[in-house]
Structure formats: structure tokens, C-alpha cells
From TrEMBL:
Name the record gives this protein: Cytochrome P450
PROSITE patterns: CYTOCHROME_P450
Cofactor: heme
Protein residues bound to heme: 417
Gene3D superfamilies: Cytochrome P450 (1.10.630.10)
Record flagged with keyword S-adenosyl-L-methionine: no
A GO molecular-function annotation: heme binding
Keywords linked to the UniProt accession: Heme, Iron, Metal-binding, Monooxygenase, Oxidoreductase, Signal
Family classification: Belongs to the cytochrome P450 family.
Pathway: Secondary metabolite biosynthesis
Amino acid sequence: VHIRKRKRTLLPPGPAGHPIVGNLFELPHNYPWLAYADWAKRYGDVTSFKVFGRAVIIVSSAKAATELFEKRSTNYSDRPRMIMSDELMEWEWNFIHMPYTDRWRRHRRLFHQYFQPRKLTKYYSSQHKLTINLLDQLSRSPQHFVPHIRQYVSSIVLKAAYGYEVQAENDFYVNLALVAMEPVSHAIHENFLVEFMPLLKYVPDWFPGAYFKRLAKDGAKKARDLRDIPFNMVKDLMVLGSAEQSFVCDNLEKLRTEGALDAKEAEDTVRNCAAVIYIDTTSALILTWVLAMVQYPEIQKRAQAHIDAVTRKIRLPEFSDRNSLPYIEAILLEALRWHPIVPLAAPHRAIEEDEYDGYRIPAGATVIANTWAILHDEEVYPEPSIFNPERFLHNGTINFEVQPDPIFSFGYGRRICPGRHLAMNSAWIAVASILATYDISKAVDDNGSIIEPKVEFTDGLVSHPKPFKVQITPRYPEVNKIIHFAKMDIQ
Ligand code: HEM
């Protein structure tokens, strides 16, 4: 009883710290999910550290994540207030960052109305059209597969959010999102000292060491541009009567006809949600899949055989084929697990003090799930570093009884990614169509030697494969004809 009582007053175990600064010097600056996974091996699946008295809890097992984020979701759906991203970079308009309030609920509800599974069929035709464009670009300049895939994903979300059709590579609106995401991703991922010593935010910009303030100022401007410029474009087009149907246009139209108690607030909610749709994580998933295909050619061949059995090599795959292709589903699930592209999920916050496994989780503690560690737990997913879609297939159908759904790649509890269905649809049609038409293989250099692509990923909130080279070649002579006819069909 005595030991239990003592344990209950203790934080979960973690590295020993120092007086006042706590674990400031132990904090990992690179690939923190790997360092935290090591801590989990040493201290247990729920670990903690403290910096200047603030507790951070790291959750590294599916069991603890389910218990805290899902079963006790009322207590763990809040977000910590982050000085860099929310205050100095002014990202508080983005509901990913919002605390667990009615304002967050209003945003999430509006978003959900448009992006829940049964509403997604309305995006099928533009996803299909943009996939054909992607295949066409891959035939012209396969070496530029990274910008082509990025453009594909951005085009889908820009069309859905603003009705905007991306014109060419290096599109102004696509770049708005790319440049805005860079500093905020850096801000959330880095352990900036100002997060633990909030008074530092009052340091003037020119002060030595106040680099974070200059970074924040620049980030705030980019975030405002991302939020306002495309939204104002749609409003201008609506005045001219030439706006295309989209999330923004539909909702502003609805506001105009139905009104709202607080029209300004309602319009801001539409504007804010639209800018969130913009976020480009799906391209990281598709690129992770490309890297897996080049590493595992036999899996690629098997996937192609499954597709050919359905399309008979005379047409491209369609969304209606999806249920007949569990192998492709398993490949995408395995890509989500093999390298979760948000390896440390966005931080949650404990609203009230709680207890887990006899340890204390203080009110206000930041609680971060180490998704990478959870999806690489070898007890749950044997040989976790091997890309093996078969782990989710039993008797030819998807089955999570032996190895669970890697859904944690999309986050936890009430804050789980509400864009996941759109993301999976966009990834599915692209992946199935590329498999139907192209072989992805190792590139060769000028001397004819094979270039071995390395399985390496970037550090950051969103982690994608480091630049790698591949060869993308048509699988059979009629491929160009199939793409050509598909293009004619949609014109
Ligand atoms: C493969 C692609 C994607 C992955 C892996 C992904 C992953 C995530 C993760 C890990 C979170 C944090 C969840 C948490 O706090 O526990 C999140 C939140 C979110 N995602 Fe995604 N996401 C993807 C695509 C998208 C897309 C395409 C959209 C928009 C259309 C989107 C919109 C959001 C929003 C709005 C949130 C904030 C939810 C909230 O705080 O309530 N995501 N996502």
C-alpha cells in the first residue's frame, strides 16, 4: 500500500534531470521519435520528462494510447498552448492548434460535414482527372516524380477547398501552402526554449539569440497569406459570378441565403477550415509507397497482377474497383505503418490530473503519442522494419485480428485526423493507377551502375522520404494509348 501510494505521486519514469532546468539537456533535437522509443525500452511504455517544471508525457504503446486518448478522451482531447506556433506565429485560427472548446467543435463539425466518407464521392471525378494528369506527367518527365506527386495532391485539395485548378508546376497557390508549413512544422517539432520559458516571448527581435522571434514573424506572415489569399480570391470571383463550386463557395453561398447568428464568426470558420484542407501530408504517404515499391519489387509485381486481373490491362482502375483489390488496400496500410509520416502525433494536453499504471499525470501536462514506436512494436508487428502488406491479409481479405489496423498513423481519440478518408482516397487512386501503368525500379547512373535508394526519412513534424532516384517506365506498349484515351474521355 505504501509503495502504491508513493508511486501515485510520481510522474511516469524517465531520464534523471537537473535542478530547475529539469531534462532540458536530455531533450533530443533530431529524430525525437527514435530517442523516445529508446526511452520506452529503458523506462516503460509511458515515460515523462520535465523542463522548467512543465511535464511532458510520452506514450509509446497501443494499450496506453487507447486507454488515455480513446477511453479517457474527455480528458485528453485538449491541445497545449504552444508559444511559437500559436502565439508568435499566430496559427491559432487553425483548428489543429485549437484548445478543446466550442470554437474547435464548430470548426470540426463544419469540416466533417464535407469530408466524412459518404460525402467523398463528389470528389471522385476530380481525383480521377488529376490522376490521369499525373500519369501523363510521369510519362513525360518521370525523373520529376516528386513535384508531380506534390502537384497532384495539392491540386485535389485546392479544387475541393477553393474550386481552383492548378495551372502548372510552381503554382502560386501550391507554393503558398508549402512555404507556410515549413516554419510552423519546425516550430512544433523543435523544442524551442520559449515553450518552457514563456517570458522569453517579450525579448525584442534584434536581441542576440532571438532568432526564434524572427522565424516566428516570418512564419506569421506566411500563415496569414495561406489563410487569406485564396479565400479572398473566391470571394472576388463570387462577386463577379464566376466562382467554381467548392467548400468555400458553397458555404459562403449558404451563409448568404440562410444567414447566421454571428456572420463574421461563421465566415471566419469557413475561411479557417478551407486553409486547413490545404495541408500536404498525403504526398508524403504516396512517396513512402514509391520508396517501398523500389525496395520490394516482388510486392510491386504481385500488386500489379491483382490490378491486371481487374482491369485486364485495357483500362485504368476506378474507385468502384477498390473493394475488389484488398492487396492494394493492404499495401497502403503497410505504408502508413512502415513509416508513419507524422511519427510523433500532434501534442494533446491533460485537462485534469489523472493516474495511469499507478503514476501521476498532472493537470496541464503535454501528452504526446510516439506513433512510430507504437507501429514498430515488434510484439505487435513482427519484423517491423520489413515492408510486408501480408500482415493485414488473411484468406485474401483485410483482417486486423492478428496485426491491428495502423490507424494511429492518423492520430488519436477525438482529435483523429478528419481528412483521413480524403487522404486515403487520393492515395489509393494514384497508387492503383501507377501500378496499372508503370514499373518503378532502381535508377542507373551514367556508368550503368544501379543506384541503391536509401530508406531514409526527413526529421520534422511531417516526415517524408529523403530525395531518392527511381526509374519509372511504362509496363507494356499500350500504356500510352490507355492514358491518351483516358485523357480524351475527361475532356
Ligand atoms: C496521409 C495523410 C495524412 C496523415 C498521415 C494525417 C495525420 C494526422 C495526424 C497524426 C493528426 C493529429 C491527430 C491527433 O492530434 O491525435 C492530424 C490532424 C488533422 N488532420 Fe490530418 N493527416 C493526413 C491528411 C490530412 C488531410 C488530407 C487533411 C485535410 C483534408 C487533414 C486534416 C487534418 C485536420 C483538420 C487535423 C486536426 C484535427 C483536430 O485537431 O481536431 N489531414 N492528421
